[in-house]
Write a structure and sequence with these properties.
The complex is a heterodimer of chains A (about 525) and B (about 350).
Chain A (H helix, E strand, L loop, with lengths): L4 H16 L4 H9 L5 H8 L6 E3 L4 E4 L7 E4 L3 E8 L2 E8 L10 H17 L3 E8 L3 H4 L30 E10 L1 H7 L3 E5 L4 E3 L3 H8 L5 H5 L1 H8 L4 E3 L2 H14 L24 H4 L10 H8 L5 E4 L7 E8 L2 E8 L10 H16 L3 E8 L6 H5 L2 H14 L4 E10 L1 H5 L9 E4 L4 E3 L3 H8 L1 H5 L5 H15 L1 H6 L5 E2 L5 H18 L11
Parallel strand pairs in A: 5-6, 6-7, 7-8, 7-9, 8-10, 13-14, 14-15, 15-16, 15-17, 16-18
Antiparallel strand pairs in A: 1-4, 2-3, 4-5, 11-12, 12-13
Chain B lengths: L2 H8 L10 E4 L2 E6 L4 H10 L2 E5 L10 H6 L14 E4 L3 H6 L4 E4 L6 E2 L3 H14 L14 H4 L10 H8 L5 E4 L7 E8 L2 E8 L10 H15 L8 E7 L8 H16 L4 E10 H6 L9 E4 L4 E3 L2 H5 L5 H6 L12 H11 L16
Parallel strand pairs in B: 2-3, 3-4, 4-5, 5-6, 9-10, 10-11, 11-12, 11-13
Antiparallel strand pairs in B: 1-2, 7-8, 8-9
Helix pairs in contact in B: 1-5, 8-9
Classes of the chains: A alpha/beta (about 525), B alpha/beta (about 350).
């Protein structure tokens, strides 16, 4: 203990320097040899230069393992603080993979709880740079495990150290190492998540626990690789090839998102004019409803500078979700992808769309739908997958949305999903169709098969008559009829889609402001 | 005190009939020469501070109407960002000025026994500090390491520390002369108008008396009444606790003070200069008060009791090691760290947590 100011200042600097050394040169070298970055490297990549204020640097954990010498854990294995990202304030908690593989001790948990509390109370985004096998095992063995949850620093005692998922301040999770236990729970509830493929994995429990628990030998990659989360579980918004790409994704997301649910996303008007025409759209989209095309190219043609931050790109590829800007406004895009399964709305597509719509709704992000879909998938497989539950979830999300919704009917708009994906029936503010748009309860073939099933079964309906009926239904389904009845707002030239949406976004902005301050929850990933 | 002389010293020019605007320190204020419901309403409508300068009773429309306007709700209450400044001896107005500044010739005022010129100067300074302004460096060039000896039992003047931290070394005290172990008032740090509380550890080791707790409570009310979610509360803490009150009323008063601070949604930044002991530390926002940031100096000590604080585990170093506090701060960096925190919390988008763990 120092006895003078001079001693105290020297001691303070010495302890800070010890914290900055993390697990020591050998551990840092080992981490880097595995293609990973240290938490301080990551923070340097994430924050604007020179803006990060570290707190909790003096915390020191003690690693006690029976039979081994006790070791100190500088900063208790987690770097915490705040700074600017793109000029806006962001809080951060970064696990230190050089100390017990990033496992947190009690002091580290208090630090993380403090940052979480501040972010929640003051409405700042919280970024978690995760590389953590949950809590430090040796610090949690025995009855001491009973008392750790919810602890916060003595002076601050943040109530939100408790688990909350109420869509007030966004939490962003970058899984940059092994994220197990609590780290994986955080990610499942994050507003945005990213994972560095190859060097990172996310699972409920790691190989030693699996081996000890059920006797199965496995690896972290087998349990929760980036590939698995990108294609099978769909839990991660952006699976990137390396850490730098992950952190660039986080910066991009933060630039599009509001600080909290009481605020609007920042509008950034760039050089892409709002009235830019998109003549290429008519070449991108075939008139024949059976011919596939890439809806992503349609989206990119419409949005500012062609920039779409697509989420869960390789999961439920028949629907596209992501953030973009139109005339500077941040929008959430939900678009059917005819290139995959004809754009049909299946269980996975609904799961993907619902959570995305809920998050947009919680954070005042206007929704833009681009429809080209033949309806919900039906059949025994789909029923077994729980299609009914998912349809109702989508219904609840659509009818419950208070953010403005704008919809473009590009081609097919069939079935109940037409309503639920931004239809006028659920209160969409602006619905327009291209001349190729077609609206109906069902595709003509399904309509005829349903309405005239007895005649079909009896062989009373000739092929020529069937074709005649199909043509008749197609004619009746043309979007222009809906425009004549003002069931939709207009039929527009596809080349004018961008300017039309930009004008509508400006028009509905007032409604978005009116919907602020409503607290809403959203589902886990 | 002669009201006309105060008005003259304020250099407002002649006060015409009705409620004129006047300019004090470049800020428009509403000036009244008698207290009335109308004065309050007009100032509120204009969104201006109200300066009431009276002699004698100084209440017009007395009786029921007069009584009504000086209830706490009528006098502003939480959310009234335009302070009331009263230069008067009227007891009615004394109550109304709870959320502002009261200068009187005699009796329970923030400042009494002042001559007219000094009273007027105080009003001008108060109206300046009650709002955000351009940042100014402190006037003192002395290092806090010189002002405050390292030894925990060493004597120093808390007010001098405060003056070395706030903009221009200027602050206006509330309840001056009451409970000298704690001093409260308004100041600016980095241009931000803040409520300030500073322990005087040289007075009974900063142990809070009942009057001291009342001073802090009033300061919290003042902060809560500020614009945009309230003025931040900055406390410089060195207290060996609160006086043991064994009567029920005293215990309740202490509980209410703790509860009010914990529930308050204003930004709270506490600097622990020395001891942060017991409920005295809580009342001042240093422990368990849901402060946004607690910055102990390296000489600081924490404890439920004085004995706890004196032990090895009571040092700020131990607290920092366990992340019970998130940092230790060089005293000479205190002003910069407070200003940085006020900027960080500027949005004041605080989500209040009513009904949670009220600490009773």
């Amino acid at each position: 203990m120092p006895n003078t100011w001079a001693e105290a200042m020297a001691e303070l600097e010495a302890r800070r320097e010890a914290g900055r050394q993390m697990g020591g040169p050998d551990a840092v070298a080992k981490l880097r040899a595995r293609g990973k970055l240290t938490p301080r490297d990551r923070i340097a990549l994430l924050f604007d230069p020179g803006t990060f204020r570290e707190v909790g640097e003096l915390a020191t954990g003690l690693i006690e393992v029976p039979g081994r010498a006790d070791r100190e854990a500088p900063a208790d294995g987690v770097v915490t603080g705040w700074g600017l990202v793109g000029g806006r304030r962001v809080m951060a908690v970064a696990d230190d993979g050089t100390i017990t593989a990033g496992a947190r001790g009690p002091a580290a948990n208090r630090k993380a709880a403090y940052l979480r509390g501040l972010a929640d109370r003051h409405g700042y985004p919280l970024v978690l740079l995760l590389e953590s096998s949950a809590n430090r095992f040796q610090s949690m063995m025995g009855a001491q495990f009973a008392g750790e949850s919810g602890a916060g620093p003595l002076g601050t005692n943040p109530p939100s150290a408790r688990w909350t998922r109420d869509g007030r301040s966004p939490i962003v999770c970058a899984v940059l190492g092994t994220a197990l236990g609590a780290a994986s729970f955080q990610t499942m509830d994050a507003e945005f998540s990213t994972l560095a493929s190859g060097t990172a994995a996310m699972a409920l429990a790691g190989p030693p626990v699996v081996q000890g628990g059920i006797g199965v030998e496995t690896t972290t990659q087998q349990l929760g690789s980036g590939e698995q989360h990108a294609t099978v579980t769909g839990f991660i918004d952006q699976v990137a090839e390396d850490e730098a790409t992950c952190l660039a994704g986080v910066r991009r997301f933060l630039g599009l998102f509001p600080d909290n649910s009481r605020e609007l996303p920042p509008r950034r008007i760039g050089s892409d004019p709002a009235d830019r025409r998109c003549p290429e759209l008519v070449d991108l989209v075939p008139l024949d409803h059976r011919k596939p095309y890439d809806m992503k190219r349609v989206v990119e043609a419409i949005v500012d500078d062609g920039e779409l931050l697509e989420l869960r790109e390789r999961y439920a590829r028949n629907i596209i979700t992501g953030y973009a800007r139109i005339d500077g406004w941040t929008v959430g895009i939900i678009a059917n992808q005819p290139r995959h399964l004809g754009g049909i709305v299946d269980v996975k597509a609904v799961i993907k769309a619902v959570r995305f719509a809920q998050i947009c709704n919680a954070y005042n992000i206007m929704l833009v739908f681009l429809q080209d879909q033949p309806g919900f998938i039906v059949g025994p497989d789909s029923e077994r997958e729980g299609a009914l539950r998912q349809v109702v979830r989508l219904m609840n999300a659509a009818y419950g949305a208070t953010v403005p919704m704008l919809t473009v009917l590009v081609r097919k708009a069939y079935g109940f999903s037409t309503w639920l994906l931004g239809g006028r029936a659920v209160g969409a503010d602006h619905v327009v169709a291209w001349p190729s748009g077609s609206i109906s309860l069902a595709a003509p073939e399904i309509g005829v098969a349903t309405l005239l099933r007895n005649e079909l079964a009896a062989g009373e309906l000739s092929e020529a008559r069937q074709l005649e009926l199909y043509a008749s239904y197609r004619q009746m389904s043309q979007a222009r009829w809906a425009a004549y009845d003002f069931r939709i707002d207009d039929v527009i030239d596809p080349a004018d889609t961008r300017s039309n949406l930009a004008a509508a976004l400006t028009m509905v902005e007032g409604r978005r402001r009116a919907a602020l301050r409503t607290r809403r929850e959203f589902d886990t990933a | 005190m002669n009201a006309e002389q105060v008005l003259a010293a304020l250099e407002l020019g002649p006060i015409a009939a009705g409620l004129p605007f006047a300019t004090i320190g470049g800020r428009q204020v509403t000036v009244a020469t008698a207290w009335s419901a109308e004065a309050l309403a007009v100032a509120a409508r204009r969104r201006s501070a109200l300066v009431v300068v009276t002699g004698g009773a100084g209440v017009t429309g007395a009786g029921a109407a007069g009584a009504e306007v000086v209830t706490p709700a009528g006098s502003g209450g939480a959310g009234r960002p335009w302070p009331i400044v009263a230069v008067t001896t009227s007891p009615w107005i004394a109550r109304a000025a709870d959320l502002g500044l009261l200068v009187g010739a005699t009796g329970p005022a923030d400042h009494d026994g002042l001559d007219e010129a000094t009273a007027a100067a105080l009003v001008v300074t108060f109206l300046d500090l009650a709002f955000d302004g351009a940042p100014r460096p402190p006037t003192s060039t002395r290092s806090l390491l010189e002002l405050v000896p390292f030894g925990i039992d060493s004597s120093y003047a808390g007010a001098e520390v405060l003056e070395a931290i706030v903009d221009g070394g200027r602050w206006v005290e509330f309840d001056a002369g009451s409970a000298s172990e704690i001093r409260t008032g308004v100041a600016r740090i980095g241009g931000r108008s803040v409520g300030v509380a500073v322990s005087e550890a040289g007075v009974e080791r900063g142990v809070l008396s009942r009057a001291g707790v009342a001073r802090v409570e009033r300061l919290v009310r003042w902060c809560e009444a500020g614009p945009d979610g309230g003025r931040p509360l900055v406390s410089l803490v060195d207290t060996d606790g609160a006086e043991p009150w064994d009567d029920a009323a005293g215990a309740l008063a202490l509980r209410d003070a703790v509860t009010a601070l914990r529930r308050s949604a204003v930004v709270k930044v506490a600097v622990v200069m020395g001891r942060a002991v017991g409920l005295g530390a809580t009342v001042l926002g240093a422990v368990g008060a849901r402060a946004d940031l607690v910055l102990p100096w390296p000489r600081a000590r924490f404890g439920l009791t004085s004995a706890d604080a004196a032990g090895a585990s009571g040092s700020a170093w131990a607290a920092a090691r366990e992340a019970d506090v998130v940092d230790l701060v060089n005293p000479d960096d205190t002003r910069g760290r407070i200003a940085e925190a006020l900027e960080l919390f500027r949005g004041a988008r605080c989500y209040a947590e009513p009904g949670e763990e009220d600490g009773s």
